[in-house]
Specification:
It contains eight helices and eleven strands. The chain is α/β, with parallel strands linked by helices. It has two domains: 119 residues, Periplasmic binding protein-like II (D-Maltodextrin-Binding Protein, domain 2, 3-Layer(aba) Sandwich), CATH 3.40.190; 97 residues, Periplasmic binding protein-like II (D-Maltodextrin-Binding Protein, domain 2).
C-alpha cells in the first residue's frame, strides 16, 4: 500500500508540475496588435474597441489578466507576433498562420472589390480584374486564394499600402484616381462610411469567396496554448448564452 501510494503521489506531482508549466500562475498582460480594421478591431481606449477586442478583454478580465491593445501596421504586427515580441494579432486569415497558433473561428472575411460610384467596372470572376487597371491592396494582408493567385500573375497592376488606417489611404487614392479599385472587407467599409468622407464616392463592384477569421497567438510566447484555450472557451460560452449575438449586434455584424 505504501508503494502504491508513493507511486500515486509521484504521478500526481508530475501531473501538477505539467499543469503549472502550461498555465499562467500570475496576472499577465496580453499584448495584441493590428492595424485599424473596424468592426473587428477599432480605436483603442474607447467603448467600441471592436468585437474581437471585447472578446479578449472579457476573457482576460475573467481570468485575472489585462489586455494591452494598440494599433500597428499589419506587416509589423505579424512579424512581432512571429518573433514572440507580442502575444498575438486579431483579424487574420489562415494563410497568415506561419509561426502562429490559430484560435477557433472568430468571424468571416467577406472580401469585395470597390470602385468609384458610377464606374462600369464589375467583379464576377477573378479574370474580370484584368481590365480594372491599378488595384489597391494592403501590404501583408491575406486575401482569398483566387485573388492571391491572380496577383502573382499581375504584380505590376497591384499597388500596396501600409499603415494604421489603410482604408482611408485606399479611399483617398481611389477618389484621386491614383487607382481604379481597391480590395477590402465589406464589413470594414460599411462600418467606416461615417468616419471616412471619401467612402461616400465608393461603390461595391462585387465580392470574392468568404474566408474565416481568427486570432493568432505567437508560438514563442509562454502559455499561448493556455490563452487560446481560455479565449476559445469564452467564445463557446458567449455563443451558448446569447452574449455573442448581443456583442455582434452592437457592431452590426451578422453571426457566423
Amino acid at each position: 500500500m505504501y508503494l502504491v501510494g508513493t507511486r500515486f503521489n509521484r504521478y500526481a506531482l508530475l501531473a501538477m508540475g505539467w499543469l503549472w508549466a502550461i498555465l499562467p500562475t500570475h496576472a499577465e498582460t496580453w499584448t495584441i496588435r493590428a492595424d485599424h480594421w473596424c468592426p473587428y478591431n477599432c480605436t483603442p481606449g474607447t467603448d467600441r474597441p471592436g468585437y474581437m477586442i471585447e472578446i479578449l478583454q472579457r476573457t482576460a478580465a475573467k481570468h485575472g489578466h489585462t489586455l494591452d491593445y494598440r494599433l500597428m501596421p499589419w506587416p509589423r504586427a505579424l512579424q512581432q507576433a512571429r518573433e514572440g515580441l507580442i502575444t498575438g494579432v486579431v483579424g487574420m486569415v489562415a494563410s497568415n498562420r506561419e509561426g502562429l497558433l490559430l484560435s477557433d473561428k472568430m468571424g468571416v472575411d467577406a472580401t469585395c472589390v470597390f470602385v468609384l460610384k458610377g464606374s462600369t467596372l464589375r467583379y464576377r470572376r477573378v479574370s474580370d480584374l484584368d481590365s480594372f487597371g491599378r488595384i489597391g491592396i494592403v501590404e501583408g494582408y491575406g486575401y482569398p486564394d483566387e485573388f492571391m493567385q491572380w496577383q502573382k500573375r499581375h504584380a505590376r497592376q497591384v499597388q500596396a499600402v501600409a499603415g494604421e488606417n489603410t482604408l482611408q489611404m485606399q479611399a483617398k487614392k481611389l477618389t484621386s484616381q491614383r487607382i481604379e479599385a481597391f480590395v477590402e472587407n465589406v464589413n470594414v467599409v460599411r462600418h467606416s462610411e461615417s468616419e471616412v468622407p471619401e467612402l461616400r464616392w465608393v461603390g461595391n463592384a462585387g465580392c470574392m469567396q468568404e474566408e474565416d477569421l481568427y486570432f493568432g497567438y505567437s508560438k514563442k510566447v509562454p502559455h499561448a496554448a493556455s490563452i487560446k484555450q481560455m479565449v476559445d472557451q469564452e467564445l463557446a460560452a458567449m455563443k451558448k448564452n446569447g452574449e455573442l449575438n448581443k456583442l455582434l449586434e452592437k457592431y452590426r455584424v451578422a453571426p457566423w
